[in-house]
Please model this.
Amino acid sequence: MIAVLKPNATQQQIDSITAWLRSQGLDVHISTGTQHTVLGVIGDTRNVDTELLESLEVVERVTRITEPFKSANRKFHPDDTVVDVGGVKIGGGNFQFIAGPCSVETPEQIMTVAQRVKAAGATMLRGGAFKPRTSPYDFQGLKAHGIELLCEAKKATGMAIVTEIMSIDRLPLFADVDVIQVGARNMQNFELLRELGKTQKPILLKRGLANTLKELLMSAEYIMASGNSNVILCERGIRTFETSTRNTLDLSAVPMLHEMTHLPVVVDPSHGTGHASLVPAMALAATAAGADGLIIEVHNDPPHALCDGAQSLTPDQFDKLAADVRRIREVL
Amino acid sequence: MIAVLKPNATQQQIDSITAWLRSQGLDVHISTGTQHTVLGVIGDTRNVDTELLESLEVVERVTRITEPFKSANRKFHPDDTVVDVGGVKIGGGNFQFIAGPCSVETPEQIMTVAQRVKAAGATMLRGGAFKPRTSPYDFQGLKAHGIELLCEAKKATGMAIVTEIMSIDRLPLFADVDVIQVGARNMQNFELLRELGKTQKPILLKRGLANTLKELLMSAEYIMASGNSNVILCERGIRTFETSTRNTLDLSAVPMLHEMTHLPVVVDPSHGTGHASLVPAMALAATAAGADGLIIEVHNDPPHALCDGAQSLTPDQFDKLAADVRRIREVL
Amino acid sequence: MIAVLKPNATQQQIDSITAWLRSQGLDVHISTGTQHTVLGVIGDTRNVDTELLESLEVVERVTRITEPFKSANRKFHPDDTVVDVGGVKIGGGNFQFIAGPCSVETPEQIMTVAQRVKAAGATMLRGGAFKPRTSPYDFQGLKAHGIELLCEAKKATGMAIVTEIMSIDRLPLFADVDVIQVGARNMQNFELLRELGKTQKPILLKRGLANTLKELLMSAEYIMASGNSNVILCERGIRTFETSTRNTLDLSAVPMLHEMTHLPVVVDPSHGTGHASLVPAMALAATAAGADGLIIEVHNDPPHALCDGAQSLTPDQFDKLAADVRRIREVL
Amino acid sequence: MIAVLKPNATQQQIDSITAWLRSQGLDVHISTGTQHTVLGVIGDTRNVDTELLESLEVVERVTRITEPFKSANRKFHPDDTVVDVGGVKIGGGNFQFIAGPCSVETPEQIMTVAQRVKAAGATMLRGGAFKPRTSPYDFQGLKAHGIELLCEAKKATGMAIVTEIMSIDRLPLFADVDVIQVGARNMQNFELLRELGKTQKPILLKRGLANTLKELLMSAEYIMASGNSNVILCERGIRTFETSTRNTLDLSAVPMLHEMTHLPVVVDPSHGTGHASLVPAMALAATAAGADGLIIEVHNDPPHALCDGAQSLTPDQFDKLAADVRRIREVL
Model:
């Protein structure tokens, strides 16, 4: 950690801050420049609150040299984490398709989609039971009944199921859910993350609309620091000024996260673009970028989907996409 | 609501969508342009899911004419809402200072700050007990004990107290809290909003880092649709590419929200800028822009604040600021 | 074009605006809703200034139904444009590598790199002679001499050369340049675009850091409206809040632009990410997304490159990348 | 300047980079941490290209301690710059209104507006002659004739005139213009900045839509490094995800720029918000934030303005605004 002091720092102030840092068990190297004195702080600075340090009157700026995430950090864990979802592996060279409708709507719908995406090669079935909607007047999901329908589809097809949790008090309903999804809007719902860290369920953690990769990893760290290392990261588009797509899918996040962390990284091109017509191109691109899996919205009847229909593929379109993705995977 | 159909829409498709809309109790006017057919949908379209409509293959784009928020909408409620916080009024020409430390730390700290900010004219005391921190390794607040200390300060000074809730299961701890704050990271924690709507407590709803004003009002609508109209909106800075300030304080939000809604709007220049040196200028600017109140971080000993010290004012600085704000208010 | 009138519009105001629109040769359909009157404006609205219309007191909002770009619009020109660069074709299924150093530095450097990238399959050589640098104290390029060195490399290798223009008064120096690049910072330098439209040179138009795809196409329209249809669009990353990459490479732009326009679209993953280690993954991703070409920075000695070295590949790395890209292209 | 080396840096690499830095006349302090070696580079590092340094394989990250702008930097020039515009002073406590129509349209229009805004207290008349428009089909300004009309208004009223330059080859037309405006889209048109630096005309430099304050100051530095210190900075809104306003007016830029630089800072709330109804509130806010002046669009007949009418005030509205601003100025 580097602390740049203000130009007018007095020797007494420098001594005082240096003594304080050393009292935290840290080592301090002092460089005196033409305008600024710079402190090099050495040791385990992970628990040092940079905002506190910056609040000292004598400090102009603080820069971390080592990242504040440790459990998620590839520097400390060079090998890829492979998350095991009931025998299905993701990460470390294992690639999976997670597919299904935006919302669970009816027994027929979820069963039909499950069978079709399984036939196309998907190993995990996604479907929203609790739906975060911007408007209180929009469809909010089938809730507990939606999870029941997912469980029936799981029983019938053997697929693992993935669905979103919006509040920790619903956790008991997720007993038979294989992967619990934390949505973009809850990426920094720290109480929720902490509680999920106390389970051993695989957690699919979606990047928030305005969150940096570092913040995504800090949120993973909340889960991991509570004891659960089964975290799958998901890039699903960030909010920018561009309006022709629903979000801006940041595919650079895939290779960048692979450098920063050992956790698996999947991509959701359906939410990431918001247009079904763009999903195939972006799914192939995500695959080529090195993603460990794809989350694709598939609906047997997109025009009547109760939400996000504009971005859902038909099962036929998914068949073709899955085949194309496999061909890209083969040449990588 | 306007639905622009694709250039190649057939008469049968146009008839089918028109019939469907009419079956929802809506009236439809059809305009046939040189390239596109445009449907004007008339009636109460608030419950029509635009995403569903856009997912129809024949639809190119849907534009709402009336906003989907109704309870919060000034068009339907032209008079300013005045929120009453234990006798202290905010909105409708009533301006209040909400001041206090970022985090409650010790009995002495919160009491000292409370007395100082009260003397300077603040009517509400803020202080974090549950703190949302990006890192699990940073100080997370005194939690229940923090609320106790706030309550003691309330008893001693008579000030109303404002503190943040992070999870609905802690609600019982907030019985004596006068205003419950929903932080930026929870602005779209819809389960939390819905539950807070079942209380009658004033809710201070902070704008999310990447949320539009329309989304802020939709979140207010969640609270109001559940039965609680005591919502105070708060602009606290949005996330942009600029790095010299912690966030970009969007003061245009103040007059724009006043056009869109009847709810009171306060501004938090401390989080909005992240630098104590910028707080006074931005507090005056927010006042001049028409804010109904200011939330200011004040700490008796900023360099040792356990969080966000860099943006806290000293009590002396707050004295001067409060006096300056009053002078601006007088000439408005 | 749809004009939504304010709720309180009088019949006289409605008549007056309708008459004015009809006097422009447009047809107007009037829909009267519960709250708003909506005008459907039909005809060639491309020359109607929406800002002027919105400035009328009675108008609440104006929405275009047809895009204001016509020459670049795929709706009017369904077939892909193939730009011919001295016999090398790009677009319409023709894919090209454009490679070379960020800046032309020395005769040896540019010649070495040219020979290496040609051997790897690149058909066009890029190299900056006039360099836009944020700081006036940074290296600004070899200018006219840089173009001479590029021309020598062209003579020696037969490759087409691509280099950036920063000011229209330097146009005479570009006589032997095959493709003139307009950089991101000049994407809305309309005077420059208009003048380049008077030449018949292929123009490589880079998307601005904060420009939408629609604005990119409007800038292409400036060139095309002046008479030059040889425009190649380039996605090179946009500015967002994310700091781990230099820019956020928006690969959705590739399939989205292919829907909106018939012009070829290339991707620059070097500037788009700012990190050499991310370039291969993002180049493959861009290819899989359907790009018509790639612009890659290659330097024979990256650590000593005079600018942007951090994002340059070595010739060996480029060899591997080009082979991998070709394998992706084969399976598409 | 701080250079953080990669964890695996060898002693030979450290020696080599240290020797290279010392050969540039710089002093280097070496700190060896638990994971990283950190080099503190001391001396005049303004001319050191950080990108070059970061491109070295052994370097992980480079952080500047001193800003790369020197002429514009308040650290080196603590006193406010006062720009003299034909006897009218701006900066250092001198506040000016710059008002006028978006575009110069007719002799009557510009004369009427000039007389009205002068009567209200404006000392400078603004009006666009060359207009940067996103669409080639929109009105592009009266060009040379527009400047003639401005000059006539100057002769009649004695006001200084401010108008935008879009291309350096038009400079001769600006001989009688008092302040040359560089628009947001040209903020990084470095060739233009450099040429304007060779004149002694006051330059009104508008912040680009996606440019940081540091980049704004680097662009000012281009002008100043060429010899012209008469630079007035202008905040005019940045591009964000928010859509209810045309841009997001970043008023924190005012106090922040006052800390960073000695140059005067004015604010343009008309472009900054895009809505006439928001202009008064934001003009007052900008004044309270400490702006050295305001640029306000005023049109005698806004509904017929040829561009940007939606954001123009009427002369009567400007009268009231100017009076309100003066009252705010009095209490500051």
